[in-house]
Amino acid sequence: MKTKLRFFFSLSLLTFVVGQVQSQSYVTIDIEEEYEFLTEQWLFVSEDLSHYYGLSAFCTNGEYREFAIEILELLHHYDSVVLDILKNPTSDIDISSKEYRKTMNDIASFEGDYDVKSFISFLRESCITRNDLERNKEDLKKEVGMYSYDGQVMMLETDLRKFMKKIDKRIVSINEHVHKIHPSQVKPLPVASSGD
Question: Structural domain tally of the chain?
Answer without folding.
Answer: 1
